[in-house]
Structures are given as C-alpha cells and as structure tokens.
Amino acid sequence: MPFPAQGHMNPLLKLAKLLHSKGFFITFIHTALYHRRLLRTSSSSSVSSSASFRFVTIDDGVSEDESTHTLHYVQDCMRRHCPASLRELLVREEDEGVVPPATCIVSDGVMSFTLGVAEELRLPQVLFWTMSACGFMGYLLFEEIIKRDMAPLKDDVTARNDARLDARIDWVPAMKNARLRDMPTFITHPSHPKHQGMLEFMIEECRNASRATAIVLNTFDALELPVLDAISASLAPPVLTVGPLMGLNNNKLIFEEPKVWQEEMGCLKWLEAQQDSSVLYINFGSIAVMTSAQLSELAFGIAGSGCRFLWVVRPDSVDGGLDGLPAGFVEETMGRGLMIMGWCPQEEVLGHRAVGGFMTHSGWNSMLESVIEGVPMACLPSVAEQPTNSRFACGEWAVGLEIGLIGDLKRERVEGVIRELMEGEKGREIRKRALEVKEEAWRAVKPGGSSYVNLDKLVYDVLKAPM
Ligand code: UDP
After folding, report:
1. Number of structural domains found in the chain
2. Residue numbers of the domain that contains 453
3. Are 55 and 30 in contact (CB under 8 A)?
4. Which residues neighbour 53 within 8 Å (Cβ) at sequence distance 6 or greater?
5. Choosing from 8, 35, 189, 361, which is the catalytic residue?
6. Complex ipTM, two decimals?
7. pLDDT > 90? residue 303
8. Is 6 near ligand 1, meaning CB less than 6 Å away?
9. How many C-beta atoms surround the C-beta of residue 325 within 10 A?
C-alpha cells in the first residue's frame, strides 16, 4: 500500500513485482485519490490486473477538489478513513474466499495506520520507507533536534538567515557533516503553508516505525552503512536494505503499469543524435514547484552555461501556472537544447549514453536512478528530505555538486555549477566517483550482494515466517 504520489508509487510497485516473482499473490492498494488521478490519463475505467497481481482501490475520504489539498490534509484523511476500508477489504475477501487470504501487509513508511490492521489480523507488517537512509535518519532525529532547542525555527524568512541553521548534527557520528539546514524542511521551514502539520506527523510516523515487523529501505549498504547502523541502533525492528530496486527488478512486466503521466518518448530519439556524455538532463520530479522568477533564474543559468540540455518541465511545476519561458531563452539556446512540457521516461533517459549530467531536485528515486547509471548530479533540492539527500550526495558520496535550495536560486550559481559539472576538474572527479558508486550499486543487487541477500531475508525470515 503506497502513499499516493509518484515517488512512492514507483518503488512500491517495483517491490511488489519482486515479491510477485518470489511467489506471492499481490493486492496492490490504491487510495481513491490516486485512482482518480489515474483515470484522468487512462481511457479505461479500471486499472488492469493479472491473475495473481491485482490493483484494488479503497476509500480514503479525500475531497475531489485537489486545489484545496495540503500534504497533511491528505495524510490525515487517509489515517482516519483507510484503516476501516483496509480491514473491511481483507476480512470480506477472506470470508468470500475469492483470493488467497492475506499473509502480510507491506505499506509505505508514512502510512503507518496499517499497523493497527496488521496487529488486529495478526499479520506481519513491513514498513517500506521509500527515502534514503540519511533522509530517514533526518526524520528520526526531529524529536532530539527539538529537545536540544535547535528547532523548529520561527518562519521562512528568519529561518533562512538564522545562524542556528549552521549548527552540526554532531551527536550522531554518521550525520556529523550535516547541518541543521540539511535536515528535512518540515523542521527547518515549519511555517511554509505546505508544511503545516507535517513536523508532528513525521514525528508520529517515526515513533510508529518501531511497531513494524521489519523496515525496508531502497538503498544499499555500501552507500549508507554508517547511517544504516545509526538507524538500526535507534529502532527495534530489523532494517533491510533492498536497493536500488531497479537493479533487482529484472523480472518481465506482467501487466501494463498504471501511469498518471503520459511519457514523451521523442526525447530518446533526440538523444540518439547527441554525442556521448554531452547532454545535461534537467528534471525536478513529480511534486517540486518554483515561482516564475525562480524559473527565469534557472533558464538564464542554463542558457549562460552554454551546455547541451534536455529539460523536462511539468506544466504544474510553476506557482500560478507556467506562462511561457523567459524572453530570449529560446533564441539563446537554439540548436543545443530540447525542452519538453510534461513527463519523460526518466530511467531510460538516465541510462542513455548521451546523458553526462543530471540536474535534479534530489528526490530519492531520481538520485538512485542516477547512481545506478553512474550519472553525476547537480543538486537543487526543494522540500522534505531532499536537502539531506543533496548534502550526502555532494559530501560523503561525492557524486554531485550542490547548487543550493530551489528557494535561493541564482542564475550565476546555476551557470557555474553546470560548467563545473560538465567541463570542470571537479566535474571530472565526480564523474569518476559516480562510476565507482555505480559499480557498488550493481554489486549490491547481484547474487550474494547485500540487497539481493536482504530481499531473501525479507521474503523467508519476515513475510513467510510463521507468526
Ligand atoms: N519521473 C519520470 N519522468 C519524469 C519525472 C519523473 O519517470 O519526467 C519518475 C522518476 O523516474 C522517479 C519519480 O518519477 O522514479 C520521481 O520520484 P523522486 O523520488 O525522484 O521525486 P518526487 O517526484 O517524489 O519529488
């Protein structure tokens, strides 16, 4: 059961397909909100299923008018409505005998309300936190950060300038290079309108994590071992790394995957005509939003860098709507870039030989997709644990260069980082390191590798173990 957003849906679907390949009958649960989004882009009135892998939608109490939604509103509705819908589904189906009885629940780490249902039905319950280990650790540290009076900060304006943002998280050795400003934005920018209620919500989800039978993370030991050890020391359940899931996930498609966005495949043809490692790919995922002034700074930074680029812009990624591109941008970049308004097949794009760099909002799926292809990154984090991901990618792992928060965007900085990444000495070092980390990622998912072994542990020691 995934949280209804693309960055959660993708890894949950990958894990579900892996579990299916291990012999499980899968019921993949959408909430009504996500089902409505799927129907907007799909011609059929239901999502296709196969005999042993089906999609089921349950009621979530979320209003149909998405313009009024905040993250916390959606979480809160689901927390209040979904447990009853889920329990009703599992009990009714067991009574009817139409599908095999449920033997375990695997749900998103931020959907911990499923724990109550699992406890009541005496089923093992795995929480899959879809973020990095460092991001997860950031959330686990919220309570301690507050206890130490480091946060929360008062409002966004003072928050940015507050000297306390440079304080180190030095009491956890694995996090000692992270500053308060690198922690998830729900604690550094608590008064942002979209963050309302999220600090308390995440604290509660972290407390609930201890009730799970096991915790699964889409990362790999060689990348995040010190942080993983710190997480294991602070949580009772075993923590199993099974990432990058896209490396483990080599089983054939068994159905047409439900998609909220139609992918523009034309960009792959354009990439075919480009030289190896010459193109900077720019994409900020499914949620990040910027103002038109920030879009303009970004556009002129890209134009000024002189690099070849593939830039994918979601039409809803600009506050108040996308009202064309800044004057002069198209003329200035003519013949060296492709812009797509919409959505692209990102994993294929990152795997293309022509892509030599990735400007990313530092969403965890995007970063892992870049890591497994050995593509170095320019990090422009926006919300949630993205600043933490960016800090680790540009520091401990040395596979990226930090531009800074989207909120602080300046064209000169964008231009400088792109030049450094695509042509500079530092860029060369990072490219080399990205290829080493790519090797480590593939080692983790090959037979005998840490994630490969952990997937078997998850299946045989947790999900198939007698309660
Ligand atoms: N994605 C994609 N095409 C796009 C943009 C994004 O397929 O044009 C996918 C991307 O491959 C990733 C997911 O959407 O799997 C975005 O997840 P991420 O965690 O990076 O960011 P979020 O959208 O949650 O902020």
Report:
1. 2
2. 6-142+192-259+446-463
3. yes
4. 16, 17, 20, 25, 26, 28, 254, 255
5. 8
6. 1.00
7. yes
8. yes
9. 17
* CA–CA dist 386, 190 (Å, integer): 15
Closest CA to 27 of 93, 81, 80: 93
To the query of whether residue 8 is one of the catalytic residues in this protein, the response is yes
Give pLDDT, residue 108: 97
b/e code 297-322 from CB counts within 10 Å (16+ = b): bbbbbbbbbebbbbbbbbeebbeeee
Distance 187 CA to ligand 1 centre (A): 24
Active site residue 69: no
User: Which stretch of 73-77, 228-232, 387-391, 424-428 has the lowest confidence by average pLDDT?
Assistant: 73-77
The answer to whether position 147 is within a domain reads: no
Strands 377-379 and 400-402: parallel
* pLDDT, position 348: 97
What pLDDT was estimated at residue 463?
A: 86
Same domain as 281, residue 211: no
How far is the CA of 23 from the CAs of 18, 220, 435, 462, in angstroms? Answer: 9, 24, 34, 15
Residue 189 has pLDDT above 90, yes or no: no
Pocket of ligand 1 contains residue 369 by CB under 6 Å: yes
Taking only the tens place, the pLDDT of each residue in 198-229 is: 999 999 999 999 999 999 999 999 999 999 99
| 56-81 confidence digits (pLDDT tens) | 999 999 998 888 888 889 999 999 99
Q: What is the mean pLDDT of residues 122-146?
A: 97
pTM over 0.90: yes
Which two three-digit tokens encode residue 458? 């998850």
- Atom in ligand 1 nearest the alpha carbon of residue 384: 25
Summary mean pLDDT of the chain: 92
Name beta bridge partners: 105.
125
Q: Do residues 102 and 121 lie in contact, with contact meaning Cβ atoms separated by under 8 Å?
A: yes
Q: Does ligand 1 come within 6 angstroms of the Cβ of 184?
A: no
Domain co-membership, 375 together with 251: no
Tell me whether residue 176 is in a domain. Answer: no
Distance between start and end Cα atoms, the chain: 21
